[in-house]
Structure formats: C-alpha cells, structure tokens
Amino acid sequence: MAVSSKGIISVVTTRVLLAVFLLQSVCDFKLPTVQADLEVGYYENTGLCSGAEDVVAAVVLAAFVADPTVTASLIRLQFHDCFVQGCDASIMENGTFTERTSPPDLTVRGYNVIDAAKAALEEFCPGSVSCADIITIAARDSIAILGGPTFPVLTGRLDGFPRGPDSPDPSDFLPGPNFTIPQATAAFALKGLSQADMVNLLGAHTVGVAQCRFFVDRLYNFLGTGQPDPDLDPTYGDYLRKICPDTTNSTSLDTNVALDFKSEFKWDLSYFTNVKHRRGLLRIDDELGTNNATSPHFTQIGSSNLLFNKEFIDSLTKMSQIGVITDPALGNIREVCEIAIAPETISMPFQLEEEVLEAHSAF
C-alpha cells in the first residue's frame, strides 16, 4: 500500500509522540569509530535539513501501520543496496541494467516507502537529503519499530550516478539462501566484513519472511537426494510442506513463510532458539547454528538481547559504510530516488562549479 506525501506531512507533526515511541527500545548504543566523511546528525550539524531523520521516521511508522511486513523489507533493502555497488541507493534506480530488475532483487520490497520519504523531504528541504541516507535511516527506524534498539546512524552519503551495462551483477555479490558457511563467509569478506559480522547481520532473520522457492528443496529433494534435509526438525518440516505443497506451482513457490517461526514481527532472540531446535528456515540459518566456525558466536549472541543488539549495530554500521560516496565528483543528490542523475545533466552556476572543483582538487 503506497504512502501518500500529504499523509506523511501530517504525520510529521507528531514528532514528540514518535520520539517517545522510538525510545521504547532495549537500550541505547554508541557507534564505533566514524569513517570517511560521514557523521552522526549530519543534516542537523550542517543545517542542510534539520529534522530530516524525524521525517523519515514518520514515513516508516505510517508505512508500518498500513503494512506491518514492510519494516523487515526495509532492513533487507539496505543490505541489498550496500552489498552490490555500496550504500549509494543504486538499488532504487529503475530501468534497463538496474539492480532492482536483477533476479536476486526481484523479491525486494519497500521502494515505495523510500520514495514517500524522499517526496516528503523534497517538500521539507528540497535537494538536501540523499536517497542513500534515507535507506539507512529507514532501516534503523524499522528495527526500532519492531521492538529492537534505536541507535544513531552515520549520514552524509551521496547517491550514485546511473548504472551502465558494465555495472556489477548483484548475483556476483549477494549471498544466496542456500549458501554454505564458507560461501557466505567469502561473500561477506569481499565487502570487508568478518565472519562474526556475517553471523551478527544474519541475526536480522529474527524478522521477515522468505518465499517457498528459497527453501523448498529442503522439504522434498535436499541436495538431489530425493529426501528432506535431515537437519530439519521433522515436525517443522511437516508444517512447512503444508504451506509449500508443490515444487513446481508458481503460486505455491511465491508463498511467504516466516523466517523466525511464530515471531516474524518481533525483534527478539527466538530466531536463535528456533535454529538451536533445528527450525531454521533457510539452509544458511541451519548452518549458522551447527557449523563449528560459526556456532560458538551464534550461541553467544543468541543468549543475550543486550549482546545481540550491540553486535548487530556494530556490524550494521560497518556495512552501512561500504562504498559510500561523499565526493560530489562521484555522486549527487537525486530529486527522485528511482532516477539516477548523470553528472553531465547537472546544471550549476559557473562560479559554484569552479568552487566545487577547487575543493575537490585540494584532496
């Protein structure tokens, strides 16, 4: 369900109530060391758009009220954006050769929420807030709405220029649901993230859903054996086969199933408990809890809300800095998130252009 800009602006007037809501979290956290030119409170500190984060939070809350499944989708959207070309809103671009039209991103949702937040911000402070930052802020607010912690995020990103036919293929970077631990570890390492970061970030499977197509092989023909995955709890397997009764029918394969059995709308530790009891939905979930390389850390963070939240936030903050653009020679701020702006189409006064170039040459 789309969120209208007019509805968003009216919600922004409830900033005090929203602030109280977001403070209902497990605890408050401080960020690890800041990198690049990003900073906490960038839009407040620079005066570019005071209240920008409140506007995004209001949009996300309104979207959640309309559709409770969208918050988990926004968390996933950030992951998919950062893992390909970096956190540059490239996933928002629409058209030929774009990320969102590639197979790994066909099930990504939440674009309309980012678009609504951008539309509201263009009315509030035109040309000031990047789509890349909106994605980061929206993911943070989604976690808080689902009962997780609220925490400061780094902002100051620019949006990427248009993708071309030679741009990276998302399939080459995004880890799949049937990845083994070594395969997933390698995919995260390519982005400068450790195996511990991988375990922490996959803890986001405590919320959200996955389509039957991504795990149906575990129910009927695991690794070509013609049998169910022996590591899957039999009772849980029977439950899943009732939801996903067919391996070929498209309607069945498109059915959504909770990643965290009976707790897909709550940020909690039940995901870790379910995996411990062999009720991890995806193969990668199951392996996190059984592989000798990952199970000690998985068990450790799964024993404490405080520790899980701290570890997750640290790793999410690292992920949110992958390939960020802060140099105006390499990126810009889009007016509409799905339309990336080529540098040659940007018009600016000659004097301002000279100032930008002089500032860039100083580095």
TrEMBL record:
<keyword id="KW-0376">Hydrogen peroxide</keyword>
<keyword id="KW-0408">Iron</keyword>
<dbReference type="InterPro" id="IPR019794">
    <property type="entry name" value="Peroxidases_AS"/>
</dbReference>
<dbReference type="InterPro" id="IPR010255">
    <property type="entry name" value="Haem_peroxidase_sf"/>
</dbReference>
<comment type="similarity">
    <text>Belongs to the peroxidase family. Classical plant (class III) peroxidase subfamily.</text>
</comment>
<keyword id="KW-0106">Calcium</keyword>
<keyword id="KW-0349">Heme</keyword>
<dbReference type="InterPro" id="IPR033905">
    <property type="entry name" value="Secretory_peroxidase"/>
</dbReference>
<dbReference type="InterPro" id="IPR000823">
    <property type="entry name" value="Peroxidase_pln"/>
</dbReference>
<dbReference type="InterPro" id="IPR002016">
    <property type="entry name" value="Haem_peroxidase"/>
</dbReference>
<dbReference type="InterPro" id="IPR019793">
    <property type="entry name" value="Peroxidases_heam-ligand_BS"/>
</dbReference>
<keyword id="KW-0575">Peroxidase</keyword>
<protein>
    <recommendedName>
        <fullName>Peroxidase</fullName>
        <ecNumber>1.11.1.7</ecNumber>
    </recommendedName>
</protein>
<comment type="similarity">
    <text>Belongs to the peroxidase family. Ascorbate peroxidase subfamily.</text>
</comment>
<keyword id="KW-0479">Metal-binding</keyword>
<dbReference type="Pfam" id="PF00141">
    <property type="entry name" value="peroxidase"/>
</dbReference>
<keyword id="KW-0964">Secreted</keyword>
<keyword id="KW-0732">Signal</keyword>
<keyword id="KW-1015">Disulfide bond</keyword>
<comment type="function">
    <text>Removal of H(2)O(2), oxidation of toxic reductants, biosynthesis and degradation of lignin, suberization, auxin catabolism, response to environmental stresses such as wounding, pathogen attack and oxidative stress. These functions might be dependent on each isozyme/isoform in each plant tissue.</text>
</comment>
<feature type="signal peptide">
    <location>
        <begin position="1"/>
        <end position="36"/>
    </location>
</feature>
<feature type="domain" description="Plant heme peroxidase family profile">
    <location>
        <begin position="37"/>
        <end position="341"/>
    </location>
</feature>
<keyword id="KW-0560">Oxidoreductase</keyword>
